[in-house]
Amino acid sequence: MRFSRFGLVSLATVPIAIILNVDVGFPSRLLGSGFDWQLIQPSQVLAQTPEERKAEADRLFNQGIEQFQTSQFEAALQSWQQALIIVRAINDRLGEGAALGNLGIAYSSLGDYTQAIEYYQQHLAIAREIKDRSGEGQSLGNLGNAYGSLGDYAQAIEYLQQSLEIAREISDRFGEGRTLGNLGTAYRSLGDYAQAIDYQQQSLEIAREINNRRGEGLALGNLGTAYGSLGDYAQAIEYYQQSLEIAQEINDRDGEGKALGGLGNAYDSLGDYAQAIEYYQQSLEIAREISNRQGEGLTLGNLGTAYYFLGDYAQAIDYHQQSLAIAQEIKDRRGEGRALNNLGSTYHALGDYSQAIEYKQQSLAIAREIKNRLGEGGALGNLGSTYHNLGDYSQAIEYHQQYLAIAREINDRDGEGLALGNLGTSYGSLGDYAQAIEYHQQSLVIAQEIKDRRGEGYALGSLGNAYDALGDYSQAIEYHQQSLAIVREIKDRHGEGYALGNLGLAYDALGDYSQAIEYQQQSLAIVQEIKDRHGEGNALGSLGNAYDALGDYSQAIEYHQQYLAIAREIQDRDGEGTALNNLGVALFNSGNLVAAEETLFDGIRVWESLRSGLGNNDAFKVSIFEKQASTYRTLQQVLIAQNKTDTALEIAERGRARAFVELLQQRLLAADWAAVLKADVTDGVSRNSDNPTSATSVTPSVANIKEIAQQQNATLVEYSIISDTFKVEGKEQFKESELYIWVIKPTGEITFRSVDLKPLWQKDDISLDELVYISRDAMNVRGLQRASVRLRPGFEQKHQANQTEQLQQLHQLLIQPIADLLPTNPEERVIFMPQSSLFLVPFPALQDEEGNYLIEKHTILTAPAIQVLQLTREQRKKNQEQEIGNRESLVVGNPKMPSVRPDFDKPPEPLTPLPGAEQEAKAIAPLLNTQPLIGSQATETAIKQRLTNAQFIHLATHGLLDDIRGIGSAIALTPSDSDDGLLTADEILNLDLNAELVVLSACDTGRGRITGDGVVGLSRSLISAGTASVVVSLWQVPDDSTAFLMTQFYQNLQQNQDKAQALRQAMLTTMKQYPQPLQWAAFTLIGEAE
User: For residue 812, with 0-12 CB atoms within 10 Å meaning exposed, 13-18 middle and 19 or more buried, which class applies?
Assistant: First the structure.
């Protein structure tokens, strides 16, 4: 047995591809057109104008060109606008067309392609009117370039083909060569590299034929870019070198800078970042020398990207900030979006996801503003990557689906493959490996079709990762070997390092640690050679894990300490937390409990500082905690091993529902502060007071926990599931090890018990998750649990569900070990704090050996955390203190159902009506002295308006809880013109509720996405919005028994029973008429009993 650790994933594709935009002259795929624009010289167009006006127009044209060439695009616009006024005044249509064309190029350089297209269209109209075939060809070419820059390649190619025909018709070999090059750029952007190379070769031939040395250099550079896109970096470097030689020969400093930038891109792709930086620095010097501000900004961005891959994030941010400043100064919106995107990617690497998302959202906004579809897709993909790393896979999938749609719309094959790969990775993280493999296979097919060798290698690596997660290690290794062969063939050292690391991980999972270490050592050597500090840290961490598995703890500790040092050096906070976790595990395994405790506490402090950096964003905090929960569980083990059971309880509580607790505290503080301000206004007293603070600290203490048990006058039961890594049939598997249980009596007495879970899977071949599943299945409940439990093939055939047997087995695990500590008076309350799949356990229906149900012995409530109980009590107190007149009740039943998508890629379908819910609402409404809202009356708009003033709320309708739909948890109501009929958990969070009680009588309303923060769903949102108590169902409840139970419940409340007692008595009464637990045990009370 070994204790749990993080599997450090050194993936052949960074698990989710982050799009860093490298762009110098011959740019990488994402940003930077690569199109060759043709400025129109005044001498070409002003031959027959009055001498005085002609001279002024000439001067303005030339002034504009000089300004343009030094990136003074706004100034160039003004010069050409003035020239336009003059040529129009002297009725020089040829000159007018030229001015319009140049204005279009200036707007293109500013990233305003829509405005540029408008000017090009005007130029085209004039050229056709005066039969200026040369001008017509130029304007068509510029239109093609503008549409290409927007990502509309089909339209770009159409215009460029028309331009090409004209150039050939009028024997304009110069224009023909330039247009062929631009067609090559468009096809490269489409991912059709063979066609791109063909056009660039034709462009090169013409340039050599007419002795156009500049054009020759440009074509050679574009060929270098095309071969770089194919992953043939040796060929790319050869072409860039030839382009550089020509530029230096003809003293074309701009061309020289572009060629140097292209060489930097190629070496960057090879993982030779030191060489890349050297070339970028030379390119930067030239850009500054010739006052090419746009080129300077692009090159600064490239330097930032190179330092990003070196793991020097501080230097990367500095360069990207400089790039951003220049783009903003010269009003280059496209460059601004690129710099913001790169800043977002760098902060992503630092683990500062909130800042990363902010920058990426700004990048997305700019792309949409300038109608840059290619940039929009890239920004969406990068947002998806950050949400993936936050652990919010449903949001990640939503963004990647949008990216995929855009890539397909603009026929961006490269982007399509990237989006498909990212979707595969997100679905894999959700555990849907079949879907993950399908997406990775599609990504692989595209890479092979467009002959993108690097993309092919990375897709194979991603397939290897998916099969690794499935446990099919031989298939995983085969894919990783294929990936390794390709990256070695194209000399991609960065990719080679990650492929070797992946092979190491696969052999580690197989239990072949010597082979794993060999591969990780090879990976480490490469990342150290190319100075990839982030990759070096990952490799060291993976080596530490392998040695830990071998039992060589001193070596494991040494490697983890090295990883920790690197993470701190490069300010990788996420990596620092991971290193501390794994170091703590190794210290624990070595028996050094004191050092392990100190290290894991340090790890928790890192995680909590990362969460605090997310501000008030509840969703981010919930998602990121999923990655961090292991540290809290391991620290509990370390503390229990030292018999520090009370401190372990503090950590168990500290490690659950943190985002929920912080959200509730934030809401309560806001309400307290509002009350202070209101008092100030009312009594006219001026107070210089800080914001009031709650009595509850964010970090729970044993004293605080005891106080809460006394306040609740209840016995609190907190569960914590501990999992470890075990070798099963020669393979490492993560299995449940122990169940920690703390019982806190109203007197403040705390008792700790531990249950051994290993016999479940060692003898019965079943996990706790699976046991919960089959217990529900034995009760014939209908619900969504199947989506959250991955059953092994043949599991259901082997484990036939037996209701009594399964409910008794759960009782034996969860209740029997603490039965002697629970109250003997059935009226006394017991509040369970479940974890993970235990949130799905029907506690009232658990049976002891005599067949007695738990609800017959105890009054039962649940809560996600002990601290939540104190906060809901404060919530209720706040509600009672508020002066609210004419409180009413709100009862809703069977609205006219909205339509929802069954999956991301499926069209919306209407939800099924619930006639039984309608009858339930009609039966309950009189008990609450109100009229029910039925069918079309129950619009989302009407319900929202009434929710805030309602004392009792009863909603008998569908509850949607499957995040794969892309909407998260929601209550189904009647749609209207102003809303979709889905009152989502996020929308509920934004309401100000003062309800004593909300009852969600529908399908699975007690469920939601089960996370380390508890159940992220409707109950959580309702309590956070101000509700003191919520009654929810754990499965889709039968109509007749539910109507009966709810009627009993409200009648009991009218007899002044508290909510918990009222629900218990309603269950006991219903049990007599409807004896099956399916019919009476679905409901649970969360929050305040009184």
Answer: middle
Residue 620 pLDDT = 53
Asked if 383 and 361 touch (Cβ cutoff 8 Å), the reply is yes
| Calpha distance 805→818 (Å, rounded) | 20
Highest mean pLDDT among 15-24, 384-393, 430-439, 896-905: 430-439
Kindly report the number of other CB atoms within 10 A of residue 61's CB atom.
28
- Structure confidence by residue, pLDDT tens digits, 371-430: 888 899 999 999 999 888 777 777 889 999 999 999 999 888 889 999 999 999 988 877
Residue corresponding to tokens 């936050």:
390
Q: In 3-state terms, what secondary structure has residue 892?
A: strand
Higher pLDDT, residue 118 or 1036: 118
CA dihedral in degrees (484, 489, 495, 500; nearest 10)? 30
Inter-residue contact 575 to 534 (CB < 8 Å): yes
Show the CA angle centred on residue 900, arms to residues 895 and 905, nearest 5°.
175
> Terminus-to-terminus CA distance in the chain, angstroms?
46
888-1087: CATH class: alpha beta
**Average pLDDT value for the chain:** 85
CA angle 333, 277, 484 (to 5 degrees): 100
CA distance 504 to 513: 8
* Cα atoms found within 13 Å of the Cα of residue 725, Cβ hemisphere only: 25
**Which residue pairs from 879-882 have beta carbons closer than 8 angstroms and sit at least 24 positions apart in sequence?**
879/994, 879/995, 879/996, 879/1026, 879/1028, 882/994
Binning pLDDT at 50, 70 and 90, where does residue 790 land?
Answer: low
Q: What is the pLDDT of residues 116-126, one digit of tens each?
A: 999 999 999 99
Beta carbons of 629 and 610 less than 8 angstroms apart: no
Token pair listed for 349 = 């690497």
So what's the pLDDT on residue 783? 53
Judged against a pLDDT cut of 90, whether residue 852 lies above it is answered with yes
State the amino acid at position 1033 in one-letter form.
S
- Comparison of pLDDT for 914 and 521, the residue scoring more: 521
> Which residues, 6 or more positions from 934, have their beta carbon under 8 angstroms from its beta carbon?
892, 893, 894, 895, 918, 921, 922
Can you tell me the mean pLDDT for 801-817? Answer: 90
Question: What pLDDT is stored for residue 787 in this prediction?
Answer: 41
Angle at 2 between CA 726 and CA 638, to 5 degrees: 135
| Widest distance between CA atoms in the chain | 112
**Ranges 54-68, 213-227, 805-819: which has the least confidence:** 54-68
Query: Is the pLDDT assigned to residue 815 strictly greater than 60?
Result: yes
Sequence-distant (≥ 6) Cβ neighbours of residue 693 within 8 angstroms? 669
As a whole number, mean pLDDT of residues 517-537 equals 93
| Cα–Cα distance, 676 to 686 (Å, whole number) | 11
Q: Are 188 and 203 in contact (CB under 8 A)?
A: no
Question: Using CA atoms, how far apart are residues 531 and 527, in angstroms rounded to an integer?
Answer: 6
Architecture of domain 42-170: Alpha Horseshoe (1.25)
CB within 8 A of 1057, min separation 6: which ones? 1065
Say what angle helices 915-924 and 1039-1054 make with each other, to 10 degrees: 20
Nearest by Cα to 236 from 199, 269, 192: 269
Determine contact, residues 134/176, Cβ cutoff 8 Å.
no
What does the H/E/C string look like for 529-598?
Answer: HCCCHHHHHHHHHHHHHHHHHHCCHHHHHHHHHHHHHHHHHCCCHHHHHHHHHHHHHHHHHCCCHHHHHH
At CA 222, angle to CA 217 and CA 228, rounded to 5?
130
Q: Residue 492 pLDDT > 50, yes or no? A: yes
Please say whether the dihedral angle defined by the alpha carbons of residues 425, 427, 431 and 434, taken in this order, is positive or negative: negative
